[in-house]
What does this fold into?
Amino acid sequence: MKKLPIIVLLLAAAAAAAWYFRGQFATAAAPLTLYGNVDIRGVDLGFRVPGRLLKVLKDEGDAVQAGDLLARLDDQPYVQELARAEAQLAAAQAEQRLKKAGNRSEDIEQGRAALEETRVVAKNAERAHQRHLGLVGHGGTSQQDLETAEAVLDEAKQRVKLNEAKVKLLEAGFRSEEIAAADAAVAQAQAARDGAALHLEDTQLEAPAAGVVLTRALEPGAIMQAGATVISLSLEQPVWVRAYVHEAELGRVPPGSSVLLTTDGRPKRPFHGKVGFVSPRAEFTPKSVETPELRSTLVYRLRIVVSDSDGSLRQGMPVTVSLDPTPR
It folds into this structure.
């Protein structure tokens, strides 16, 4: 009779152990279900230059492709800016060619002719001076006339030296520093011309990627500053889902895991995706996520890249995430 309570206790302990391990295995084998929201990137588009808005070619809800023209500024001020820059570049290039070519042969010949003329004048002054020297001692000329002849001779010699220096400068051409300055002026004018061309190009606003126009912020005729938003675009790609996982289940969804994504609107036709990022930091579950767990539970954020979005996913849409049993 005393053995009966012991047997009952052993049976109870065995039943409790079986229940515990069965629960553990059931928990480990239970399918993983996560909850999150669709995250679609958007971009606010504007011009890099100020001006008057001429045309807006797209409206809210319009689908656009990469490179589509969305809006245009009045480009006349920038056309004139480009014309001025091109004229300044042409002038700088002409000055550069002049400096590199050196002086014209006609200018050099003219300088040489002027030098020969001063040499002739100097020779005549030398002969006149010699005559005055021969006559001054015999009373044929005065001392004042001799001094005048000497002054004329000195002036003629200086003119010869001056013209010789001018001819040397003409024959040598421009200094290397002057040529370098001309090259720098051309480079500066070219940069100004390229900047003006870029400003003219920036009067057209193009879509950077495929998407849908969310907001048309301005209308034609508006005077706008550079960077003001004209159109807000919701991008088609990438489409992400932000989901959250508990620490105990973190090892079941490493980066690269294939998952299925279902929405309330199409529960039988899931989207496919891959886990692209797992946050290294724990955080509290956001209020926007519907989970059966306590909202104060610490979780880790996942970023799931949707591979087959068809445009039906919308920003903030709640999504249920499960592991894909047949990853593609």
User: Anything to note?
Assistant: Residues 43-74+203-233 form a domain with the OB fold (Dihydrolipoamide Acetyltransferase, E2P) fold (CATH 2.40.50.100).
